[in-house]
Write a structure and sequence with these properties.
Blueprint: H1 2-5, H2 9-13, E1 20-21, E2 26-29, E3 32-36, E4 39-43, E5 52-55, H3 58-74, H4 100-114, H5 121-134, H6 139-146, H7 151-157, H8 159-162, H9 166-179
Antiparallel strand pairs: 1-2, 2-5, 3-4
Helix pairs in contact: 6-7
Length: about 180
Amino acid sequence: LAGSTGLRPGEQAALRWEDWEPEHNLLFVRRSGQYIRGQWVETVPKTSSGVRKLTLPPLAQEALGLQWERVSEGGTLMSRSQRDISSLIFPSSSCRPYSSWSINDGIKRFCRETGLPPLTAHQLRHYHASLLIREGLPLTLVSRRLGHATPEVTARIYAHWLGEDDALAADAVTRALQKEPFE
């Protein structure tokens, strides 16, 4: 899910089933969470742009469907105090949200087991952004999808992907000038 959405680790940890609309292929990012001095705290995402609606690729839809089956089959009876977080998409075995450290540990374990190089959740976010940029999506769209405050933030972080081939700019100018001569 992280690689196909670019979610921040805290956004992943705070996802709830009510945030997923499978019939419309959408995921709503409404909150972010983290542990502060041992207490789970949820806030709005990092920036006001962080509250967003993401269209999910089929792979992410499938992953969420499998997670739904996994959680509903393996679910346990929860006490009243646990019910407020019971709708988490990715609950720990104790029905509590995962910390960003736990998310990273899980991703690294998965990478080890599958022979992939070790990755973190934030590296999957960068991977997602880099894929979108490489595919030629407008920077404004990439920025909105990542929940960045402005496209300038996205440009600053991913400048190395934006300026890979200056020859493309020269070719574009050549094509444009061949189409319409200036008067």
